[in-house]
Amino acid sequence: MFLSSRFLSFPMVIGAVIIGVVSGKAIFGPPLDEYWRKKLQEEAAAKDSDANSS
């Protein structure tokens, strides 16, 4: 079932990293995009209100 070597092979590690990155973007991508969009809008509104008040 498993290879007899103690360490994972390099291609297996690279494959796992690619799968992890793709699945991470699929799971966490949309909520993070929404978070940063709201954050940038709040910062723009704060800068706008600071410019208007001075």
TrEMBL record:
UniProt xrefs under InterPro entries: PIGBOS1
Taxonomic lineage: Eukaryota, Viridiplantae, Streptophyta, Embryophyta, Tracheophyta
UniProt cross-references to Pfam families, sorted A to Z: PIGBOS1 (PF23670)
Protein's name according to its UniProt entry: Transmembrane protein
Keyword presence, Transmembrane: yes
Transmembrane segments: 7-28
Keyword field: Membrane, Transmembrane, Transmembrane helix
